[in-house]
Amino acid sequence: MKIDRRAAVLGLGALALGISTHAADNDFPNHPVRIVVPFPAGSSPDMAARHVARVLGDTWKQPVLVDNKPGADSLIGTQDVIRSKPDGHTILLTISQVLTNPLLRRTANYDMFAHLRSVTGISTASFFLAVPASSPATNLKQYLDVAKQRDVSFGTLGPGWSGDMSMVALERQAGVQLRRIPYKGTNEIVIALGRGDIDSALLPYNTAQSGADKIRLIGTMGRERFKLLPAIATFDESGVTGLARPSWLGLFAPARTPNDVVQKISRDVNAALRNTEVTQYFDSVAFAPFITTPEEFDLFVRDDYRFYGAIVKTNNIKLD
Q1: Which residues contact 301 (CB under 8 A, 6 or more apart)?
Q2: What is the pTM of this model?
Q3: pLDDT tens-digit series, residues 1-28
Q4: Could you say which protein family the record assigns here (predicted)?
């Protein structure tokens, strides 16, 4: 029997590639994994990362370390991951600010889709508009009426933060202008709001609850009313439309991270999101697990990128 030597070589090559891919998948991780969180310890991204990391450590039989790198509107931590070796051992857990920074800043020095790749979602949550308990505003309409009459301040994580971008759209639609006060984390915003240092903020439910006796929630950006607070109307119901987008946490890797490693991280993180410890924590802070494949998460990220890109273009927003 004659053997086609070229076909045999190609066949052996394909077999070797299959073995190599499988081995790479099985070999990851082969040393400690670092989850970079570009926000302070105790923040919502940090707490979610620590719960997921504990489960992943058990699954991978390797330490999974949460490395907080706050600062420069999350750019310090993001750029650290971009510069890291693309082998899956350094990954980024962050918010949608990762999308808006390159839209707003030339000095961000990265392209969202050239330098990072989407791995999986982590969680989603609705934003609530919060004011001090002493505020005269008890709903969104009253808040906007006050903002039309006097200076109203707004606590923010920075101009690239999704909450800040949504408030830009609110300002344009409602014909108001808010004075921004920057903070490094949402916990700091809650403290400032409770003291009356600022007039308002957009906060996820769990963060707002930490100051429940000193602040008041007067509207939700969710697509529907929050089941735990059914009396609070949505922005849409209050006449401010088109802003119903969730706050989210997601996982990213350096762009050249091998696909088989990305797929493994995604599968294992999704399994962690179904773990009882993680689901109980998410329930306690009103997070919804955001279980996706890398491909599904990438489509979601690109849609958000277009949404915020339109806000930047329409309002001609540039930070440098």
Answers
A1: 99, 112, 118, 250
A2: 0.78
A3: 444 444 444 444 444 444 444 445 568 9
A4: Belongs to the UPF0065 (bug) family.
